[in-house]
Structures are given as C-alpha cells and as structure tokens.
Design goal:
homotrimer; Proliferating Cell Nuclear Antigen
Chain lengths: 258, 258, 258
C-alpha cells in the first residue's frame, strides 16, 4: 500500500530529471521514500534517483497485500514499472496544484489526482523492463561545482558546433571544449569563478547528445557537481525537491580518436 | 449594400469561432446582423454563428443592387461565400485596430481596411459551397455550464491519452473521461464546482479531434454551456463579442464499441 | 593585427543585418572600421555594410604581418572570409555581454571571447568566396522614410497573400501591394503618415521572399529609407549600432508579366 501527496511541480521536476535519461523504469517504493536506478537503451547513460519521504506532504507505505507482509515492513520495498513520459505530460497540465498518488498493486495501477482531474496509469510489467543496473565502483579524482545555468548555456552553444564535448581540469581551471570542422568553442572557468574545484590535470570526451539531454533534466537545480577523471565516466550530481531529493547521472566516456 | 465598422480583435474572435469547424462558408448578411450555419467536410460537426448589428460600431445594409429591392429590405438577406481562414490571417496582423468592411456584390469582393492597410478578398461562389445544413431537432435533457479554461485544459490533457472522449453526468457530477491503451484520464466536477448542472445519468462518446478543434474556437468565452444526452449529439453554446454574438457547435456522437 | 571589443548585442544586430542576405562574405577590416559588400548566391540581392571604429569600446588595427607593412597602414585593409551564420549563432548565447574579437591571420582564425566563453572560428579562404560585387551606379528619383515596424508588419501580412510585392509612389502616397489569386493586400500611406516622401508616380515589383528576408535584417532599426524608381532596383538604407553603422540592401526588380 502506497499513498502520498506532493506538490505537482516538485513531482514534475523529479520526473523530468528521470526522463532526461530513460522513458521508463522500475521505481522502488519504500518506507523512507522513492528510489530508481535505470540505464538508457544504448547502455551509455545511467540515472540514480532518490526522493525522501519528507519531500511529500503526506506519505504512507505498507508492504505486501496482507497483514503478515506489513509486519516485516522495515526493509521492505515495492517495485513498480512506470512510463515516466506519460506521467510527466499529465503533470504539466493544470499548473501548480497538489497531486495525490495511490498505488494499487492488485490491479497494477497508479492513481494520480490533481484537484478534480484523475489520471490512472497502468504499471509496466517489471519483467519487461531492463534490469536495474549495478552502479560501477568509481573513484573520481576531481569535483567541480558549477552554476547549472552556466553549464547549460555552454551546452546549448556547443550543440551548434560539434558532436562531442571535452570536460576537463587544467590546474586551477575547469574547461568545456567542443571542436567542429571549422570552429571551436571553449569555456574556461578559474577556481574563483566556480563554487568548488579540485585542482588537477585530466579530461574526458563525451557524446554531446547525452550531455545535452542530461542538461535538460537538471534545469531546476541551482548548482551541479561534476565528478571527473581521465578518460573516465562523468557523474553529475544535483538536488531536486528543495534538497529532499538527489539525482546522479553517470555517462560513459568516448574514446578520443586522433 | 453592406458597410460596417468593427473592432478587429472582436471580428477575429468571431472568425476563429467559425474556423474551428469550417474553412469557408456562406455568411448571411441582413439588417439585424450576420449569420452563418455550416458543416465540416466530414459532416460530423456543425457551427451556427450569429453576430448582432450592435456588435458593430457602424452597420449599414440595403438589399439588392437597385432601389426597388431596397424597398422590401425588412426580411432581406444577402449571402456571401467567404474563405474564413484568409480573413482570420489578415485580422491577426496589426493588432487591435478597427476594421472597415465593405461588400461589393457587383465585383463579388469584400473590402476590408485596417488603418492604412486595405485587404480585398474575392467572394467564393455560393454554388461551390456545401449547402447550408438544417439544424436537426434535438432535445437535450442535461445542461452543464463550465468555465471554458477548465474544459480546455482537460481537453489538452486528454489529447495525450486517447482519441475519444466521454462527456457525461452521473447524479450531481459532470465528468469527462478518456481511455488510452494503458492509462485513463477523468475530470469529475460536482454541482458546486460548476456554474450550472442539470442532474442526471447519461453519457456520450465523441471524437477528441473535433472536440479539441472546437475548444480552440471558444477560447475567448469565459463560460460554455454543454448540452448533453445519452448517446446523443453534443451542443456547445457560448457567447462572442461581449455577448453580442452567439456560437453553437453541434457534434455527432461516436458509437461505443465494446 | 586586429583586436577589438564590442557589445555582444550590437555585434549581433550587425551580423543579423548581413545574414538577411548572405551566409558568408569577405569582411574588410581597416583603421576606420569594418566594411562588407556581398551578393546573394542568385545574384538578386546585395548587402553593403559599414561599422565605424567608434561603435567599438576598443579597436586596434595594424596591417600586415611585419613592421614594414604597418608603416603604410593608413589606407591599408585586411580582408577576411567569415561564416556569418556561425558567428551569429554563438553571439545569441549568453546574453548581453561584451565580446572580444581578435584576428590571427597567421593561423587564419578569428578568436572571440564573451566572458569565460571562447569561440574560435576558422576564416574562409577569400578565394573560395564570391567576388565582392561592384555597386551599380543608380539614381533613385524617390525616397520614402517609413517606420520599420509598419513596413515589417505589412511584409508579414503580404507573405500570406502572394509571392511578389509592388512598392510604389502615387502622388503624395506611398503604397505596398500584393495580389494573390483570390485576394489583394494594399498598404497606402500619405505623406503626413510617413517620416519623409518624395512625391512622384512610379512603382516596381519585387520578389517577396527577398524583401521578407531583408525585413528580418532591419528589425533593430527604428526607421528605414526606401529608394525607389520605375521598374528599378530597390535600395533600403538603415542604421545599426546606434547610428555608428550603416546597412544598404539592393534588390533587383522583377519584370511584371501581364
């Protein structure tokens, strides 16, 4: 049994951070909130999402269909397959109201209600969804904390230039660099222009399509943390729901061809 | 002879209520104002339109080309074929000015003038247009008066879900319901959430494409009246031109297949 | 050696006045500012562009790569091939900052910098570009000075009607006229509705596509001067960069077929 109440725009912000990487996935509902981990169809990008129960105005969860299951509910989790695009589209209608959520596992439906508007979505069969990925063990030598808008603006400009983007650190400077056939774009920010920077010398190359998609999912966050290595995956961390939710994107690097 | 002067944005609102259903039609000009009745090419939807002469800042009409025709002008009407899409496009340019209309039946043209901009449109040959439809005799057991924006918002959400929409009344509740393959949307409004409701138990199914087109034509009206029956046509009534014009849409029901 | 600093939005306005006619061209840099003259691929339209050095916040120019060339810099000019569309796209990102320009002829690149964002564009080989056109010797019997927005609005309306537009003067009235198959649009402005008018009786026909493209390039200017003749080219003059730049469009007339 899962029933909850949350600001519709907060939920939408959360769902948009997920749809930046995947259309659908297995949402895990537990007593302490919601969690999701999913990879994109090409296996290049991963999203990890967590939303604490106190992001909700009301949150009730009991596991299983019977009383005996509920008694062991501490570590219990319910897994539901959700089409996030559909949920997002509906949350966009009708503005800033509160939304009621109610999960019915018997009929495999998620009931949502915004004021007088009720929207029922069939759950996806978890067996039909990609397996929840393991998060690889990674160590990132460098962290960069940057204003989201600065990052996004550079990504928008980059899309006009090329297909791949270099993210790197050179001493006390963080840079983003895109090369096209005829032209080249480079953002360079010194330590004092950033919120945080671990000095170092390293860079990696990423597919710009993926970074651009991710940059849409982070639009509500004020700052993002870029975790970087040398020819290494990128992990972008940011908060949603006024700090009561966390999102991480993981993106595989591209091998630079000379 | 027909010459008139009207606020361009008022005329545009009127024309848009017509183009929501038909591109062209026979406008009947008479001493008491303008009238139109037309069906869409598929014969599924009808629009009835009336604009009183006092919606105009100036309105002069005399029938026929000679003096003798004018003497019997009381019941007289002139019928002109108009391409409403073209007229609407031009009225959208140049903002909120006044527009002068002048009909020249000799050369079969409608002259419009907005400030320094003159736009001349050739009349369509009435013989080339679909016959003006008869309004079927209908009795609607139920009337629902609803805020236009609430109705339109629900239609926009519905378009993301399915192709058909149910409009119905269940006791003291009015509802709109769309079912997709996987999900379902339902707006339920109790009597006190509406401006008016005739209680009852009935519903009909309609093609969402048509309802969505109509919902664009009513965007300037504050409220609309939905006239409903059981597996019956829908009639939507609303006012234009600050109450000096009336529009009715009639839409054939779809047969529900189980 | 060319290095300069200019408001990014001013530079963008200038570049947009060029891209209304051509995508690329040879920009001539000299001690007194920038100049360009280019024809469109179909040889129908020409743009002449001039930007004074005092439109820049900083402007430094020395000709040639060595000291001896610099000594004769008075009449000296450097010609660089630029892809104006690319430059415009980048200037659109990041808002109203200042942009630093630096030309490196050795490596044939133009370096631009807006805050922390550096954009390097390869120069086009001037040999690959169309030759700079000669400006034909023309005498225009009539000048009309009109508010840009009035002109642009009429062009937008005209595009809904037809493919060609007549610009003409009839006594003390300036007019723009487009005829479609079924309808006709005409703007008529008397001398007192214009900023200036040379009375006369003449008109010419132009391709609306070209005039519409040009009308986009003049959107920042308050007024434009139309130079007209009888079945003659059109020259449109206007200012950019707060009067510190000048743009002229020249457009060949269409021959009227009866």
């Amino acid at each position: 049994m899962f029933e909850a109440k949350i600001d519709a725009s907060v939920l939408r912000e959360c769902i948009e951070s997920i749809t930046a990487v995947v259309d659908e996935g297995k949402l895990r509902v537990a007593e302490d909130g919601l969690k999701l981990r999913a990879v994109d169809p090409a296996n290049v990008a991963m999203v990890s999402f967590e939303l604490q129960r106190d992001a909700f105005d009301d949150f009730r969860f009991e596991q299983g269909s019977g009383a005996e299951a509920a008694s062991e509910s501490t570590a219990a989790t319910t897994e539901v397959g959700i089409d996030f695009n559909k949920l997002r589209d509906i949350l966009g209608i009708g503005g800033r109201e509160e939304v009621d959520l109610k999960l019915d596992e018997q009929v495999q439906k998620l009931f949502t209600r915004m004021g007088s508007l009720a929207y029922t979505i069939s759950l996806l069969d978890p067996a039909s969804l990609r397996k929840e990925p393991k998060v690889p063990e990674l160590e990132f030598p460098v962290q960069v904390v940057i204003e989201t808008e600065e990052f996004r603006r550079t990504i928008r400009a980059s899309e006009k230039i090329g297909d791949h983007i270099v993210l790197g650190v050179d001493g006390e400077e963080f840079y983003m660099e895109v090369e096209g056939e005829m032209d080249k774009l480079r953002l360079g920010l010194r330590k004092e222009q950033l919120i945080h920077l671990t000095p170092g010398t390293l860079h990696s190359l990423y597919s710009l399509d993926y970074v651009a998609a991710m940059s849409k999912g982070m639009s509500h966050a004020e700052n993002i943390t870029l975790n970087l290595g040398k020819d290494y995956p990128l992990r972008v961390d940011f908060e949603v729901a006024d700090g009561k939710g966390k999102v991480s994107y993981l993106l595989a690097p591209r091998i630079e061809s000379e």
